[in-house]
Structures are given as C-alpha cells and as structure tokens.
Write a structure and sequence with these properties.
- The complex is a heterodimer.
- Chain A is built from 17 helices and 13 strands.
- In chain A, a hairpin with a 2-residue loop joins strand 4 and strand 5.
- Chain A is an alpha+beta fold.
- The N terminus and C terminus of chain A are likely disordered.
- Chain B is of the alpha+beta class.
- Chain B folds into two domains: 247 residues, 2-Layer Sandwich (Cytochrome Bc1 Complex, Chain A, domain 1), CATH 3.30.830.10; 204 residues, Cytochrome Bc1 Complex, Chain A, domain 1 (2-Layer Sandwich).
- Helix content of chain B is 43%, strand content 18%.
- In chain B, the strands form two sheets. Chain B has a seven-stranded mixed β-sheet, with helices on both faces.
- In chain B, helix 2 crosses helix 8 and helix 13 crosses helix 17.
- The chains are: A alpha+beta, B alpha+beta.
- The interface between A and B is large, with 88 and 92 residues.
Chain lengths: 453, 475
C-alpha cells in the first residue's frame, strides 16, 4: 500500500497544467515574521485544508538518519501539557483529520476540518498547539522508536521496499538523498528527545516555512489563521528563543554516477523487482517540461506508453511497468521499474532497456508527441478538481518557490515544446552507459548460475 | 488516516496506480450540525432505460470535470470453484478491442481526450471508468457502450494477458505475507459462501483458464439489464440521460443466469489456522461472522444492528483516540498496529475483522488476548457518551469530506446500487449511525462477537534466508 501511495504522490507532483479558466487563483503574502502564505478560496464545500511545510525532510538529517521523520510522528504525542490521548480526542471529537510526515526535501503538518464555527475553532486551536508547543515526551518517543524498528522489519519482508532503499543508497552515495527516510536500526536507537528539540528549533521556523490554506474561508479569515500560526512558530523551545529563524542551508548539488552499476539482492519472492535509473532533474529545471513531456510517452502515461506496450501488452512480462522523473530540490531520480517472475528477469530487463535506449537516441515520434500533448492538455482540468488536489499543488508551488502562475502557464508551456527539444533534453540528461540497475529476488548469484546449468 | 483503511474486500484493478481503496467507513461521522452541512445539491437523478439499464447522475459543478462509470453485477461472488478470478481476467480483456475499435486504438482514443481510465473488480462487481473534462463525456460513453456488447476476443491477446494477470497475482498476493494470510483466512472462515475465493483467483485456476471461459462469462453477464451507469460532475442530468439512451438503448435486455443463494452455513465453533512463511513480522487476523446492511434490508436482522456494528468498529478503531490506538498501541504498548473493520456493505453477509501486529518483543499470544479482551469489554460495559459523540462527529465530517472527490461519490453510488443496497442508502447512512445507542453496541457485541463464530489466522514468520534456498531448489 505504501508503494501505491508513493506512485500516486509522484504522479501528482510530476504533473501540472493550466487551462487559464480552470486554474485556481492563488493569493500569496508573507507574514510579519516571514512565513510565506498561499491561499485559495474554494467556497463550495464547508471544508478547510491547511498544510504547513518546512525544508526539514530527511536531506537535513545529517548523521542522525530518521530524525526528520521521527519528529513528524511526535507532534500529536504531547503539546502544551496535553498528552497523546487528549490531542487525538481534541481533533477527532470535531471530526478533524491531523497528519504529519516527511519526505527527502519537505516535512509537513496538515489539518482537514469542517468550517462550521465550533468545529473549525476547536480544530485550529489544537493544531496551533501542536505547532507551537510540542512537548516531545520521552515515553512516547521510546515507544515510537520501537515502532520504527517494527516498520523496518516490515520493509525487510517487502522486495519492493528493499529495491527502493538499495536504489537510493547506490544512486546517491554520500549525498543526503542516499539516507533512508526512516533511518537505520542503529541511527534510530541513538536518537534522543534532545535531538528532536534541537531539530525543531532550527527548522520549524517562520523563515523556513510555508503555509497553504484551501477552502471555504475568506481572505480575512486566512490572514487571521496565518498570523496565529506564524506567531506560534515564534514560541520558545526548552526555554530558548526560536526567533524568526532562517532558511535551511542548501542541499548539496547531486553528482551523477560515473559508471554503470548493477546490484543484485537475493530474496525468496516469486518475482524479481527491478529498478533501473540515474539522477534526473530538479524543480524549476530548465529541461523540466521537455523531460516531463518526453517521459509521458516513454513510461509515464500508463497504457499508451512505450514501456507498457512492449513489456506488458506485447509480451505479458509484467503487471506494472513505468518510468518517471521525481524532480526535487536538487536532482531527484529518474527511474524505470517493473516486476516479473524470476525466470524471465533477464528478458524483461532486456526489453525495457531496448525501449529506453531507442527513446534516448531517437526521442518520440511527432505523432507520439502530439498524443502526449493532447492527453496532458485535455486532462488539465482533472488536476485541480478537488480541494485535496489544489492544496497539493499550492503547497508544492510554495515549497519549491515556483511562479504563482505555474498552473496558468503549464499547458501553454507543454504545447510549446518541440520534438527537437525533447530529443535534445533526453540526449543530454539520460546516460545509457551510466545507469544503476537494482534487482531484488532470486538466489545469490553463484547459486543461480549453478541452477541454470 | 485510520478512516481510510480498506474496509471492503479488496477490489482488484487492472493497473496498480489506481488500485481502489474502498472505504466504507468513509461513511464515517455527525450530530449537532448535521443540518448545517447538509448539501442541498445532494440529489441523484435516477432513470431506468427500456432495456433495464439503470442510470444515476449527480451534478457537481465545482470544476469542469466529470467521471463516468459502468458497473456490472459480476465479480468473484458469482464464480464457482475452478473458475475463480474469471471476472477479473475478463476485466483485463475488456481493454483488448471491439469490432469497431481494435486493440490499442481504444487506449489512444481515451488518452486523446485527456481522460484517466481504468477498471476494478471486487467480490460483487466489476466497474469501468473514465475521469475527464466534462465536455468530453460523450466520447467516453460511446466507448463504454461499444464494449458492453461488441468485445473481440483474440486468442493471442488472451495468452499474453493471462500472463499479466498471473504477474499481478504474484505482485499483489504471493510475495506479500499479509495478503497471503488474508487470502487463506477468507478461505477458512467461509465454507460455502463465495466470499471464500480471492478476487484475483487461485493460481491454479488462472493456469487452467481458457479464452472460451472469458467469452462465455462476457456473453452471460455483460448486458444492459445487468449494468448501472453512473455519471458525477459538471453535467446536465437531462442531457446525460438522453446521451445514455442514445448509446446504450440500442441493446436489448437479455435473460440473466440464476444466481444461487449460497448462504454460508452456520459456524459451530472457533476455526484456527496458522501460516508459516518467510517473513519478518508476525501478523494476526480474526473475524467474527456478522450480518451485513443487506441482511437488515432483507428483514433478516433489526435495522439498527448493522449500524451498531459499524459504530462498534469505530469505537475500537476510528482514529488515534479510538480504543485500539489508545489502549494497545499507546497505553500497554503491545501493538505496533491494530485494526477493526466492519465488512458490512456487500451483496452477502461477511465479518467484523480484527487485525494486529505485535509491538517489538511482544508475543503474539499477548496481543491476541488483549484484542479479545477489548471485545469482551464491549459485551459487559456500555461505551461512554464521549466515545459515541466522537464517532458521530467523525461520521458527519467524513460525509462532507467525501464530497471533495467526484470519483469517490460515483464509486459510492455505483457500489451501493450494484450490491443491492440501492444508492438511496447514502441518505440513510448518517441518520442510521446517529441513532445508535451505547446499549445497542453492547447488544450486537454479545450477539455476534462470539467465539463460536470466530476464525483466527496467525502468520508465523520463518527466516527469509532458509526459505530462499528451498524456493530456489523448486524453481
């Protein structure tokens, strides 16, 4: 399930669009203490979505892998003297949903509530408390650490998780993106609530944050909420002033792989899980749209993509096969993935590689490119159809500092890209001789050879 | 979020990114302000075409988009042993072209109108959908109408596609310990109810499946009088109905096979199974046979009983303030995860399912006892007013949150209609939950959550490496 969610998230982030008429109107301002606010009024349903984001993902863990992730699990475990039971009760007794989490770049604290006065007031009040005065109780942290270890055991019985972890580790080497988001058994064991407080004080500050608000509140209400949250972020931590803080230091530039690498991990599964890739692109990248548009036809559009046609439709080799770029603050991965029964692993990899190689060399046909544009432009209105979609976009635009008219110009930008631009971008950015291949499944290599004979 | 747990028997899709997460506790929620948030536009336009096809349209003008779904009353619970997974395999074949549009062309057409499309199969239904700009609706409807009766079955396509389905089974079930546990748990809990079979089908049945099986299945069940068209979005209901007549009324009604009752025989004592698998985590799955909403509709149990079971599940597991999270995950800290779900929204009665993963260094027996103790407490003590109030507040809010997604709304309408509850059930749900009392929860706990009707499945992890060698030898 986790992986399904991940795929869904990636799709959401990779796409974007614009139909001048349909793009939501984003209002943006900065509070006195420096919190950047992004607001869209959607009056139809009595719902408010709020998402507070910080540059505080696992790329900022340093030598304490898993810290950024663990902290997001601690907000609702104790705040302003309330314990976990009381906090959960406070949110849920008014039907509000609270969540918090971290990816590699970003950490977020989210709320969904009804906008009826009593419910919204109560929900925002408790939300503000967990942001302002998290207590990070030791007992809860000890329990959370044990749960994190159970989570790691769950990953170890999941070939897809094993593959993904190995992929990031081998792709990024010494770069912070290599570090597992949920840490390691050793790093988690070493964490203390003191670490949480120090991390909180440094990164959960106005100048490192963005607040996205979407729903049935007017601008006046949005400003009041933003000011409250901004003020909450000024509270002291363990008796020390937090102040307005500053932006997190830049994530180091990613170095691409210098040679091809294949990692084989034995596992008692019926299928091999294969990931092939390299470092890709970043948010605001000059090649972003060319790569996005090209990949749509390569492996990003489901059943009309080349990979799907060749690997699944023509040969029945895999249920799922895809490729995508995950643009991040610095170059995120470009990856191609599939799963196939062990005996046809080599064949599936060969077919997928051939598709990729041909595409990298020749690019899409004019016809394919036209089909991709039709799909992206025609499907634009779907992307901001719900409040949930809208907050996803504006939180992303705010966090990565993309232009406010990003959605309004998206389809024109896509329409304007030529075949030559796509061919050129793939030639420059995709390096067939320096790909990482991770294969999870089957026996250790030497035994495998013995069986083949 | 706890509310988003998969409460239904898992439907199986054709493509993983749209694997359907059916939440029936999506209905979670209400009280004080129920009236205030009541949406006046919450009207469903219902029509039955001359050929017996039902059409449901709900307008939502928030964005210029629409979703169209065609639901067929066919799924695993209509299959018999030996052909399990046939409904799902046929779903895959439904993308392989018609007399008018050859294989591949269909996908291109859908893509060209900017639509997202897919399908899903469950125990009780198979559904196909497109989500798209509202002004492109007609193109999608034409496609859906075309493949209702004009599918072409190519032996070569079938040969490849059945391999894809097998890969899907390996990916979805065979390599996932908790999925294997669920599969075998269902097969043991039900002796003769068709809910004992997995939607994806047993591997041996997939291996024995023939093209002719799919053709026969299609001819029998894909007919307008066995289908419901659902459209939700920025559309004019009258125009949608006119369009539906134009494209679907060209087919005549056909006689449908008789669906046998297959009512599950009464369980007469606890059933235990153990699965030993290469895995890292122990896992527990327990189920008590319960009536469904359908049982109340058919007058077999009191109307309030299924609602009381639904609220009971949320008392145990309706968020971080519910009993499992409060007492077992935090409190005693003996569970890394624990869940309760009422599977009450199918065509046939199912179970109240309790799941758990022990916390680090905690024995499974300890967790199992604590989970069952929580059930016993429900039989002896009334739940508190504040707990009831919390569940009801979540139900009210959840009902509003659901409206944010037109796909979700369409799926609710279509599934309720297709399992026989009727789409009107959506309006009955909130009042039904709000009327539940603490005494009723105690009553259903005593009546249904009893050892005689309990099945317990336990996953005992074997080392991953040893099994590696064994499996390797088998290959």
């Amino acid at each position: 399930m986790k992986n399904l969610l991940k795929i869904a998230f990636v799709t959401l982030v990779v796409v974007s669009n614009q139909f001048a008429a349909a793009a939501p109107k984003i209002e943006h301002w900065v509070t006195d203490s420096g919190l950047r606010v992004y607001y869209v009024n959607v009056p139809e349903l009595p719902i408010l979505d709020a998402r507070l984001t910080f540059a505080a993902g696992s790329a900022y863990d340093g030598d304490k892998a898993g810290l950024s992730n663990m902290i997001t699990g601690m907000f609702d475990k104790g705040a302003a003297g309330l314990n976990a039971d009381q906090i959960a009760e406070a949110f849920e007794s008014v039907g509000a949903n609270f969540s918090a989490g971290a990816a590699r770049d970003i950490a977020w604290i989210s709320l969904r509530t009804l906008t009826l006065e009593d419910q919204m007031t109560s929900a925002l009040d408790i939300w503000q408390k967990v942001i302002e005065k998290p207590d990070f109780p030791d007992a809860d942290f000890d329990r959370l650490k044990k749960q994190a270890l159970v989570g790691m055991q769950a990953e170890k019985q999941n070939p897809s998780s094993i593959a993904s972890k190995a992929f990031y580790k081998n792709l990024y080497g010494n770069h912070p993106y290599a570090s597992p988001k949920n840490g390691t058994e050793k790093s988690i064991a070493a964490l203390t609530t003191k670490d949480l407080k120090a991390f909180f004080k440094q990164y959960y500050v106005n100048k490192n944050g963005q607040l996205a608000l979407v729903g049935a509140i007017d601008k006046q209400q949005a400003m009041v909420i933003a000011n409250k949250i901004s003020k909450a972020l000024l509270s002291s931590v363990g008796g020390e002033e937090r102040g307005e803080g500053g932006k997190a230091v830049a994530i180091p530039v990613v170095k691409p792989l210098t040679e091809a690498k294949t990692i084989r991990i034995p596992f008692p599964s019926t299928q091999a899980h294969v990931m092939i890739g390299q470092t890709g692109n970043k948010r605001g990248d000059k090649d972003y749209f060319s790569l996005y548009l090209g990949n749509h036809g390569l492996g990003g559009s489901g059943f009309t993509s080349r990979l799907m046609k060749e690997v699944r439709v023509k040969r029945g080799l895999s249920y799922s096969v895809y490729s995508y770029f995950i643009p991040m603050q610095e170059n995120g991965p470009f990856m191609l993935g599939l799963q196939t029964k062990l005996s046809q692993t080599d064949e599936a990899i060969k077919v997928a590689r051939e598709v990729l190689e041909k595409f990298q060399k020749e690019g899409p046909s004019e016809e394919d490119l036209k089909a991709s544009k039709l799909n992206i432009v025609g499907g634009f209105p779907l992307r901001t159809a719900s409040n949930d979609d809208i907050i996803g976009y504006i939180a992303m635009i705010g966090f990565y500092g993309l232009p406010l008219d990003y959605l309004n110009t998206f389809t024109d930008t896509v329409e304007g890209i030529s075949r030559d631009q796509v061919v050129d971008a793939f030639k420059r950015r995709v390096h067939l001789d320096k790909m990482l291949t991770v294969i999870v499944g089957g026996k250790a290599v030497n035994e495998e050879k013995a069986t083949e004979k | 979020m706890k509310q988003n747990q998969n409460r239904s028997l898992s439907p199986v899709g054709r493509f993983r990114s749209s694997f359907l997460i059916m939440t029936m506790s999506m209905f979670i929620f209400s009280i004080a302000n129920a009236d205030e948030v009541e949406n006046k536009t919450n009207v469903v336009h219902e029509t039955v075409l001359e050929n017996g096809m039902k059409v449901l349209v709900k307008q939502d003008k928030r964005a210029p988009v629409a979703v169209i779904q065609v639901w067929y009353k066919i799924g695993t619970s209509y299959e018999h042993e030996g052909i399990t997974g046939l409904s799902h395999a046929l779903e895959h074949m439904m993308f392989k072209g018609t007399k008018k549009h050859k294989s591949g062309e269909f996908e291109k057409m859908v893509s060209a109108i900017g639509a997202r499309n897919n399908a899903f199969t469950s125990q009780d239904y198979t559904a196909y959908y497109e989500v798209l700009a509202a002004d492109k609706l007609e193109a999608a409807m034409e496609i859906e109408a075309d493949r209702m009766r004009n599918l072409v079955f190519d032996p070569e396509e079938f040969k490849k596609e059945i391999e894809v389905v097998k890969e899907e089974r390996r990916w979805r079930t065979d390599d996932k310990p908790s999925s294997l546990l669920r599969e075998q748990f269902n097969a043991v809990a039900f002796l003769n109810s068709p809910y004992r079979a997995p939607v994806i089908g047993w591997m041996v049945d997939l291996e024995g499946m023939k093209l002719k099986d799919a053709i026969d299945w299609y001819k029998k069940w894909y007919t307008p009088n066995n289908a419901t068209l659902v459209v939700v979005g920025d559309v004019d209901p009258e125009k949608v109905i006119t369009m539906a007549k134009k494209y679907f009324n060209v087919y005549k009604s056909n006689p449908l096979p008789e669906v046998k009752l297959r009512t599950e025989v009464e369980q007469k004592g606890i059933r235990n199974i153990v699965l030993k698998l290469p895995a890292k985590l122990a896992n527990l799955r327990m189920g008590f046979k319960t009536p469904g909403m359908i049982s109340a509709k058919n007058g077999e149990v009191e109307k309030w009983e299924p609602y009381a079971l639904e609220v009971l599940a949320n008392i145990l597991d309706g968020g971080d303030s519910a009993r499992f999270a409060k007492n077992l995950i935090r409190g005693k800290s003996i569970a890394a995860g624990a869940g309760a779900g009422y599977y009450g929204y199918g065509r046939l009665p199912n179970m109240m399912v309790i799941t758990g993963t022990p916390a680090k260094d905690v024995e499974m027996s300890v967790l199992k006892k604590s989970l069952l103790d929580e059930i016993e407490i429900l039989k002896t003590e009334l739940v508190s007013e504040s707990e009831l109030k919390r569940v009801k507040a979540q139900v009210i809010a959840g009902e509003v949150y659901e409206r944010d997604s037109i796909q979700h709304m369409a799926t609710l309408l279509g599934s309720l209609e297709t399992v026989g509850l009727g789409h009107q059930y959506m309006d009955e749900y909130v009042p039904g939950v709000l009327a539940v009392t603490a005494q009723q929860i105690k009553d259903v706990a005593k009546k249904y959550l009893i050892e005689e009707h309990l099945t317990v499945a336990e996953l005992i992890p074997l080392p991953l490496n040893e099994e590696n060698d064994k499996k390797g030898a088998k290959q």
